[in-house]
Amino acid sequence: GAGVSQTPSNKVTEKGKYVELRCDPISGHTALYWYRQSLGQGPEFLIYFQGTGAADDSGLPNDRFFAVRPEGSVSTLKIQRTERGDSAVYLCASSRQANTEAFFGQGTRLTVV
Amino acid sequence: GQNIDQPTEMTATEGAIVQINCTYQTSGFNGLFWYQQHAGEAPTFLSYNVLDGLEEKGRFSSFLSRSKGYSYLLLKELQMKDSASYLCAVAGNNRKLIWGLGTSLAVNP
Known about the structure:
The complex is a heterodimer of chains A (113) and B (109).
Chain A: E1 5-7, E2 10-13, E3 19-24, E4 31-37, E5 44-50, E6 53-56, E7 65-68, E8 75-79, E9 88-95, E10 103-104, E11 108-112
Parallel strand pairs in A: 2-11
Antiparallel strand pairs in A: 1-3, 3-8, 4-5, 4-9, 5-6, 7-8, 9-10, 9-11
Chain B: E1 3-5, E2 9-13, E3 18-25, E4 32-37, E5 44-49, E6 53-57, E7 60-65, E8 70-75, E9 84-91, E10 97-99, E11 103-108
Parallel strand pairs in B: 2-11
Antiparallel strand pairs in B: 1-3, 3-8, 4-5, 4-9, 6-7, 7-8, 9-10, 9-11
């Protein structure tokens, strides 16, 4: 596609529910990143995929967070038993290779009530 | 530890020049990025430096000194639309980007 696409753009969920956030990267980009960003903060790294594999998942805050990229393209970030502290904008970015210019999607604003 | 420091806020006047500094301490270095982020929007790429020196791109320039762990973003002929947050990010040993908190720039008429 023309750019990185993230769906949904907004998600409101109740505490304790399960959510999935989707990222469709730019075609041909092998590197894919998930970040989350709170108001007034820089992006916080969550996980980085190179192809289908998670090259670095050290930013996932706990085992309620999981992400997959089964075919090396679309990625899904999954959050179980959501908590109010999970509320943030979740950003996805892709780049042709690691360490080259990354293009960001518009983000998914997650609100846990 | 790993650390990226940049000023929290800056103010400048339309038409002027402003320099936003970034200092870093990271495990390894594989390049420094500057991104612009308008409120409510995703970051957009401005520049990438991996070698020492100045990279110029239109009204925006970025400078890097690896020995000093220092970079700056220079914005010339400021326009109102340049009011945004400017994020400095460094690619470390594993190429994971380490982000600063951003500098909020307000351009006044």
